[in-house]
Amino acid sequence: MGLAHLTELDRLIHERIRLGIVSALAVNTSLSFNELKRLLRTTDGNLSVHARKLEEAGYITCAKYFEGRQPKTEYRLTEAGRQALERYLAHMDALIQSMRNH
Fold first, then answer.
1. Is 0.90 surpassed by the pTM of this model?
2. Residues in a beta bridge with 71
3. CA-CA distance, 67 to 73, in Å (whole number)?
4. Residues with Cβ < 8 Å from 66, sequence gap 6 or more?
5. What is the distance between the alpha carbons of residues 23 and 27, in angstroms, rounded to a whole number?
6. How far apart are CA 83 and CA 97, in angstroms?
7. pLDDT in tens, 6-61
8. Sheet strands (E) in 5-83
9. How many other C-beta atoms lie within 10 A of the C-beta of residue 81?
10. Is it the case that residue 1 has pLDDT exceeding 60?
11. Distance separating alpha carbons of residues 69 and 27, to the nearest angstrom
12. Do residues 77 and 22 touch, judged by C-beta distance below 8 A?
């Protein structure tokens, strides 16, 4: 694998916040909006925009509900999202190995 394969990276996941979202959800059953915001050290608007892109791609699901009088937003990784993350990690691993063995 050479540098030409960089163009095959899943650009949707490659962005820092989106990679953080799918990675965090891969090791947690679900996370709330505030938990993700705290983990990723980002703003409400930034997290909201990136989470929406992942949701539109079918990589995560978003559930909104009330807990008492407080609105809550909960995210989960879908099977498509988990497979996309696994492909991305395999691609990055192959790229790193290619560079180390070059």
1. no
2. 66
3. 10
4. 72
5. 7
6. 21
7. 667 889 999 999 999 999 999 999 999 999 999 999 999 999 999 999 999 999 99
8. 31-32, 60-67, 70-77
9. 24
10. no
11. 29
12. yes
Is-contact 23 29, C-beta < 8 A?
Answer: no
Q: Output the CA–CA distances (angstroms, integers) from residue 73 to 25, 44, 101, in the order listed.
A: 14, 12, 45
Closest CA to 10 of 85, 95, 97: 85
- Dist CA 73 CA 52 (whole Å): 12
Residues belonging to the chain: 102
Beta bridge partners of 67: 70
Reading the block at residue 102, the tokens are 């070059």
